[in-house]
Each structure stands twice: as structure tokens, then as C-alpha cells.
Amino acid sequence: MKKSFLKNINETSETNLGSAYSNNQVKTTDVNILLNRVRLDRKKNLKKKIFISVIFVSLICSLIAYITI
């Protein structure tokens, strides 16, 4: 009975180590993908902010030009 019990513990620990290693590989890949996504999102947000501020400034300039004429 003891031999089979010890054998089962060793088998489960080996499978857990194998799955932990494969999970680490997947997690590092996922982290890189997430970091790239964050960088792309920052670029998109910056472009949106610049576009909105240019439109806002042009509206203010056109309003000032309309009022002075």
C-alpha cells in the first residue's frame, strides 16, 4: 500500500511541474501581447486627443473670426 501511495504522489508532482512550466511559457507570451496592446492603445488615445484638440482650436479660431467680422 505504501509503495503505490508514494508512486501516486511522485506522478502527480511531476505532472504539476510540467504543467507549471508550460503555463509559465504561455504567461510570458500573454504579457508581451498585453504590453503591445497597451502601447497601441496609448498611441490611439494620443492621436484622438490631438485630433480633438485641433478641432476645438479651429472652432474657437473660426468663432473669433466670425465675431470680429
Task: Summarize the structure in short.
This protein has one helix spanning 2-68. It is mainly α. The chain has one domain (1-69).
Give a description of the structure.
With about 70 residues, the protein is mainly α. The protein is about 95% helix and about 0% strand. The chain has one helix at about 1-69. The protein is rod-shaped and about 65 Å long. The chain starts with a helix and ends with a helix.
Put simply, the count of helices is 1
Tell the overall outline: rod-shaped
Q: What is the rounded Rg?
A: 30 Å
Helix content: over 70%
Q: Alpha-carbon distance between the termini?
A: 100 Å
- Beta content comes to under 5%
Helix and strand run: H
Number of domains: 1
The count of strands amounts to 0
- Low-confidence segments: none
Biggest beta sheet attributes: none
Structural class assignment: mainly alpha
What's the overall average pLDDT, rounded? 79
